């Protein structure tokens, strides 16, 4: 187990760049799903590997071995290395759990404060805040709300407001905050996965951009609304919950250029190159999952042997 268990920690170094290259050639919606699924799969494999290291090290302790009915030591592997690896894995798991709890508490407090400030919506899912600083964002929850300030309403023309609202509604209807939550959680499991967070955020914003363009029936209007909203918001930044998604977020010039480019994503990509990266990504995911399963199976066999059971 001590050898196979390391693969889930190494394979993200190859899988993450491959996933990013594939996402660049896809439409926003499948790109968001691909990147999020990749981060979740790699995070689960690396977390499983950490847990297996902790279990293997814990079984070296006499009290734990007694609970597991081990009548002889586990076979295979260096005892010192197993113990050190288990200690490091336990520290990483505890650190990740602590950061996760703190993040959830902070974001929950921010969302509660935002809902308190916006009060009751007066027009469906729309809440207007009396604030001269231009801002607009999708506030997740039950139900979700579109929050816009009077400053943002004054900065946009009526048709641009409709595009902005359609953008934020796409965030709510697509539950994009859950995609970002998965990305944040995955980043706690493996540091390499943090580099996919901006790519996922960009794909989600592009997804909402395309929805806004479809809603107003004019891609140039959607592009103009996003550009003007971003310029207005940056002129007088307004604090918003970290879990909220906003049209003014991310690389706005790149998003506007993508809206004005009417060619489909497939026409801008190199099919053979993308297929090559897809093969690499699938191989990494399969190897990572297979290594985690193999490590778990090997540990299970070692425990059975230490319990005096037959290897068969």
UniProtKB/TrEMBL annotation:
Pfam families: Peptidase_M48. The keyword Membrane applies. Signal peptide: none annotated. It comes from Streptomyces beijiangensis. PANTHER family: POSSIBLE SENSOR-TRANSDUCER PROTEIN BLAR, SLR0241 PROTEIN. CDD domains: M56_BlaR1_MecR1_like. Binds 1 zinc ion per subunit. Its cofactor is Zn(2+). This is M56 family metallopeptidase. The chain crosses the membrane at residues 32-59, 79-101, 273-293. Keywords: Hydrolase, Membrane, Metal-binding, Metalloprotease, Protease, Transmembrane, Transmembrane helix, Zinc. GO terms for molecular function: metal ion binding; metalloendopeptidase activity. InterPro entries: Beta-lactam_resp_regulator, Peptidase_M48. One of its GO terms (biological process) is proteolysis. Gene3D superfamilies: Metalloproteases ('zincins'), catalytic domain. Belongs to the peptidase M48 family. Residues 105-184 form the Peptidase M48 domain.
